[in-house]
């Protein structure tokens, strides 16, 4: 692995400079752009350019919306990590519902920020107490109505177990595990909370308290 390519979208010049300086000496992370808007980032990418992660300030001054920004980035195959002052739970809810990999506060320590960016650049969800609190207070987070058995299978599968191991631990056939996962995805889809990937399933499990928030 030659390294992850990341970009920061933040319209505060001091924040952008500090971020770039912080990561300039970190092996495996290349900050390829620090820009003030999503449109500026996308316009700067040449055809075929690959970007692993965009670290997105949730409060930009260009009139863009969180959902619109996240959608634009994900449509280009770019994962998103929300970067916020943490003073607006509604913005964090918008971000979580839009499909970001996690939320990290600007006030976090250097170690926490480095860990979050490194994990998100690798496509891993970054759970945090802020993300959990925002989702916990979200009145629009629809209940998927999973059965106890579906919740059990989801808890094992979303935590990283492959279907054969889930089958062994749950005492059911592997084909039944696959059927349960298909039903779980369908139920989440019906309530407007898509879970098309294993990362999505992990996030849904965190949101619904089926898996614990790491570190809590």
Automatic annotation (TrEMBL):
Keywords: DNA-binding, Phosphoprotein. The modification 4-aspartylphosphate is found at residue 57. PROSITE patterns: RESPONSE_REGULATORY. The keyword Oxidoreductase does not apply. The keyword Magnesium does not apply. Residues 5-121 form the Response regulatory domain. InterPro entries: CheY-like_superfamily, NreC/VraR/RcsB-like_REC, Sig_transdc_resp-reg_C-effctor, Sig_transdc_resp-reg_receiver, Tscrpt_reg_LuxR_C, WalR-like, WH-like_DNA-bd_sf. SMART domains: HTH_LUXR (SM00421), REC (SM00448). This is Two-component system response regulator DevR. It comes from Leifsonia kafniensis.
